[in-house]
Amino acid sequence: MKYFGSWHTSIVVISIAFLAAYLLPTFGSSEEVSLILTVTGFLFGVFAAFTLADRHGRYTDLKRAFATESGTLTYIHQLAGLVSRPLQKVYEEAIDNYLMSIFDHKFYDYPLTSDEFYRLFEPLKKKLKANSKTAEEGIDGIVDSLGKLEDLRKEIMIYLGDKMARMEWLTLAILDAIVVFSLFYSKTPTIASMFSVAMLSAASVIILIFMKVMDSLVWKFEIWSVEPYQRVFERIGKLRYYPDVSLMSGGLWKLPKDKDYRLASYEMKYYPKIMKKVRVVRAKKKSKA
Prior knowledge:
10 helices, 3 strands
């Protein structure tokens, strides 16, 4: 689902709600409908609150995990520099390839980056000479950090797989439909009634849309998922990397205008490990006044 710039979708939902409140006939309130609205509204509120809290917790855990992974990769690069400059260069390439593989795949296909991740262990299989205590500590630090990264990746995969079940969506949709129906059935031909019914109905629908956004992990996607890794590219001396396929699927990423970056294009729409072309895009120079 495209991140709904949220205002556009909200405005459409509110407009439809007000139009329906104005055009639909009034039936007047009844004790039976009021009872149904009370019970259903309570159930919907409780279920929605629990679901939103659960989705927000998952979102927070993923945000923390991605920040930790990006920070640990930068730390490994620095540790490699304590050992030797050649080893640091090796890790610059290995980390660069790993990060590019993350961006080359769809968000939920994070597990497919495992091959590039385990290549981060390759330099350690060679006999590394520690010429000083600092270098020895650097090697131990890299080993320890890679072990923590492996555990962290398992956590990320669990979080990504923790999506809402169809039964949850069905239950919420049924409850919300009953709430909206009861509201419109109970409205009276007064401005206050039509306004209240329209706003309450729109709010209940917008809550479902927001749940979908949170469940799809597109809420502030670029800030918490893209930007931390882009900063790693810069810290290891590489240009930022953007795949053009991602830019066409949801408009969640923005290309920098004031920085040079690499832009990947693919001859195949997906799983682009074979036939990938990367070109450097230069920053636009500001014209002097």
